[in-house]
Amino acid sequence: MTRIISITLCSLTALALGTSCGDSEDRDVVVEGQAGRLGGKPNIVMVTVDTLRADHLSAYGHSRETSPHLERLADQGVLFEAAFSTMGTTLPAHLSIMTGLYPHQHGYVANHGAMSGGFQSGESRRAIAEILASDGYTTAAFVSGPTVSKVTGLDAGFQHWDQHEFDKLQSLSSTSRHSSVTTDRAVAWLEAGPEEPFFLWVHYWDPHEPNIPPAPYGGQFPKGSIEEQLIEDRKIRPEVLLERFDDEELARLFHPDWGREGGDIELPPIDHDAVVDLLNRYDSDVYATDVALGRLMDCLEEQGLFDDSILVFTSDHGQALGQHDWLEHGRIQSENVHVPLVIHFPGEVIQQPLRVEDVVSVVDILPTIMARLGTDSARELLTQASGEDIFSGEYLRRFAFSQRSVRERDWELGEDTDGLKFGLTTSRWKYYHRPDGADELYDLSTDSGELIDVAAEHPEVMETLERHVLAILSRRPFTPEARQGPESEELKRFRETLGKIGYTGE
Ligand SMILES: [Zn+2]
């Protein structure tokens, strides 16, 4: 039976620290739920949107109406307000979603990890599609971008795999496909009546750079007042971006037609208006993706499948859009790792709608789903995962661990990435641990933009959070075996495509 408990707690950090709650650490209300198990095997639909930062969704408070369909889903499901990814990088983050493991445990800490031969499944390292397939599920995936293509190994366990033929195309904008096209294919598969139960994964790419929203989305969000506020609040400095990034990188963000035109790059001025234009194009791509989600939900409803299905909506990472003097992803500040997470459960398994304030990680998604199933294979994944069932009634971790990508882009050579960097988010703190440098601490209760390092003022907090980071890193690390033999044609094209979209480093 579903039981929802509303309680007032002191901050989660205070809990983690085992200290008493001071006035400054009181929170309003934390909603916890205990969910039951489902009979049978429900269909499961997973939607991941690449490069989607939570705070650009109206479902998460963005003042533009960018996500009416996600709001429709949230009205019938559970919305997690504070969900964080494990990395700001596509392949590692998706593998965390699909395995419930941290990057050092599934073994991939960069998109280039695919060059070693892709995800290597094994004992305690199985992907959800493999487990569900062994449990009798029909499995199908429809993906939209190169960094989730078959060579990455993300196809593990999928009987039907549908990807964009990026390798046959030449220009930057043609390395991925639009959400409308991917949705057409997924909807056709659903309308053909797949054998149930099924696990369907749909991956969208639209918010990933370059942001080239096609008609009718291009003019969705014309210049308004909201961008001025964002630029001011986020302290976006076009002049620093211009100095920091090379022309190709700037072109990918600020000159969306670059790559379609060929020839020399002619950059527009990288100024205030260019940032406004970038923010507007990004929001338009977010909206286009939401329309695709709406079509997918409509199809599930028309087929009579929606009510009894588990539907998960999330993202692999966010996008900096100029915040912290950064343009894209890879880093682990909130703009890069705070992701949307909305789950619709069938029937009475949990009271819905529900909003959860607790800090959770994408590694918690699979345990939370699989705990509802109660099959043998579900239990196997619960044993494997580093994440937890958020609705067990015993979810006490309440922090999210993230890891910085290794350098993937040439211009990162001068960046502060010497030595890996790890992050821990709690309801109050953002802590960064650098094995070869100074750690940092930000008080999110007064500094949500992570601008003032207060490490020196809170040594006891630093000590506790460092202990959590080191404990996670010591747990079941895995290094994949190096790929043997000559590079296949498929891998060669993959490497070339990675270069085309900017991942030219290690
Ligand atoms: Zn991504």
Query: Which CATH class applies here?
Result: Alpha Beta
Largest sheet data: 8 strands, mixed
Q: Any idea of the CATH topology?
A: Alkaline Phosphatase, subunit A
Strand order of the largest sheet: 6-5-7-3-8-9-4-10
Mean pLDDT: 86
Percent helix among the residues? 25-40%
- Principal-axis shape: globular
DSSP strand tally: 14
Share of residues in strands: 15-25%
Compute the number of structural domains: 1
* Rg over alpha carbons: 22 Å
What ranges have pLDDT less than 50 throughout 5 or more consecutive residues? Answer: 1-32
The helix/strand series, from N terminus to C terminus, equals EHEEHEHHHEEHEHHHHEHEEHHEEEEHH
Q: What is the name of the CATH superfamily?
A: Alkaline Phosphatase, subunit A
Class from helix and strand fractions: alpha/beta
CATH structural architecture: 3-Layer(aba) Sandwich
The number of helices is 15
The distinct bound ligands, ions and cofactors come out as: zinc ion
Distance between the termini: 51 Å
